[in-house]
Amino acid sequence: MADRGASPLDVTGRVRPALAGFEPYDPAFTPCRINLSANENTHPLPASVTEAMRAAAVSCALNRYPDPMANDLRDLLAAWHGVERANVMVGNGGDELLFNLLFTFGGPGHALVTCPPDFSEYANFAKMCETPCVEVWRDANTFEVDADALVDAARSASLVILTSPNNPTGNLLDPALVRRLLDETNALVLVDEAYVEFAGTPSHLGEDASLVCWVAGCPRLMVLRTLSKAFGLAGLRAGYLVADPAVIDALASIRQIYSEDVLAQAVAAAAVSRRRELVGVVADVVAERERLAAGLAAIPGVEVWPSAANFLLVRLPGASRVRARLRDEYSILVRDFSYAPGLADCLRLTVGTREENDRLLDALSILAREEA
Ligand SMILES: *Cc1c(COP(=O)(O)O)cnc(C)c1O
C-alpha cells in the first residue's frame, strides 16, 4: 500500500555509517562519436573470435544457474598461465574481485597500501570496507614508485596493491620491488595487470611482462587480470585473480555465488580459447599507441608520458577546457584527470583505431594552440 501524503524518505541515519557520503559512480559518459575515455579496446575483433563467442552465447542454457566457480573457464585460464584450477578465481569483472579482496582481507586494523595516482577504485573499495588506506605517492614527474617508502609502509600493512602497467600513468612496475615486498614484509601483494597484454611483445599477450608465473612460488602474491581491455570484452564483465589456493578459498566463501553468469562464462571461455587470434589486434593497438604518442609529442605544449598500456597520459595547458571542447565541438570523449592530485592539467587518452587517433590528433593540435 502506498503511503498517502507521506514526506520523501530520508535514509540518512539508516545507511551503514561507513557507507554514508558515497555517490553513485559517474563515468561522465556523454554519447560521442569517438569514445576514448574508458580504455576499452575499440579495434574490431577477428570474425573467427566473434563467431565463436556468438555460437557459445547461443548454446547457453539460460534456465540453469551458472556454475558458481566457472570451472570450465577457470581450467582454460589455469592452462594458459601454467597454474592449477585451485589458483584461479573468476569474477564479474576485475572490480568485483578487488571489492571482494578488500572485503575479505581489509577492515579496521588491516591497512591497505596504494601508490597513487592509481586506479581510484582501490581507495573507494577500501573505504567501503572500513579499511585504512596508506598512500605512498609516486614521483611527480616519472610516476615511479619510491621502493624504500613503499616497503616501509608495507611492513605494517595487510595488503599492498600495485598496478602494472599503472592506470592512469601507463608505466610498468619493477618486478624487483615485488620481490622486496615479498621478502621484507608480511603483506599480501596484489599486482593489478588489467593492461598487461599491451606490455611486452604483442605475440606473448603479456606473458613476458606478467608476474603470474611467480604465483606458484610466492604464496602472498596475487595477480589480477581482466578480459575488459585487450580482449575487448568490457561489456561482458569477466575478470580473474591468480593466487594461492588459500586466498582463492577465502574469496570463494564470501563471493556472490552466481555473480558470473552463464553467458559471460561461455563467451569468456570462447574468447580465451581463441586468444592467439587476438595477437594481431593487440599488435595494432600497440603500434597505434606509439604512433599516437609520437603525434602528440609533436604538438607544441603537449607533454606525453611513455605507456605500456592502451592509453596515454598527457599534460597540456587548459586540459579541462580542451577536454570539454573535444567533447562538444569534435564529439571525442577522453578522460579528465586534471582534478586529481598529482595530475594537474592531465588527460587520459585511450588508444583508438587509426581513424579515431587521427581525428584526435587533428583536434588536439587545434585546441592545444587555441587554449595555450
Ligand atoms: C579496467 C581496470 C580493472 C578491471 O576492470 P573490469 O572491467 O572490472 O574487469 C582493474 N584495474 C584497473 C587498473 C583497470 O583499469
From TrEMBL:
Assigned EC number: 2.6.1.9
InterPro entries on file: Aminotrans_II_pyridoxalP_BS (IPR001917), Aminotransferase_I/II_large (IPR004839), HisP_aminotrans (IPR005861), PyrdxlP-dep_Trfase (IPR015424), PyrdxlP-dep_Trfase_major (IPR015421), PyrdxlP-dep_Trfase_small (IPR015422)
Domain of life: Bacteria
Pathway given in the UniProt record: Amino-acid biosynthesis; L-histidine biosynthesis; L-histidine from 5-phospho-alpha-D-ribose 1-diphosphate: step 7/9
Residue(s) carrying N6-(pyridoxal phosphate)lysine: 229
Residues of the Aminotransferase class I/classII large domain: 34-364
Single GO molecular function: histidinol-phosphate transaminase activity
Keywords noted in UniProt: Amino-acid biosynthesis, Aminotransferase, Histidine biosynthesis, Pyridoxal phosphate, Transferase
Cofactor(s) named in the record: pyridoxal 5'-phosphate
Record-linked SUPFAM superfamilies: PLP-dependent transferases
EC top class, as a word: transferase
Catalytic reaction(s) noted: L-histidinol phosphate + 2-oxoglutarate = 3-(imidazol-4-yl)-2-oxopropyl phosphate + L-glutamate
A Pfam family: Aminotran_1_2
Family: Belongs to the class-II pyridoxal-phosphate-dependent aminotransferase family. Histidinol-phosphate aminotransferase subfamily.
Subunit structure: Homodimer.
UniProt-listed PANTHER family: HISTIDINOL-PHOSPHATE AMINOTRANSFERASE, HISTIDINOL-PHOSPHATE AMINOTRANSFERASE-RELATED
Annotated HAMAP family: HisC_aminotrans_2
Protein name: Histidinol-phosphate aminotransferase
Organism, scientific name: Paratractidigestivibacter faecalis
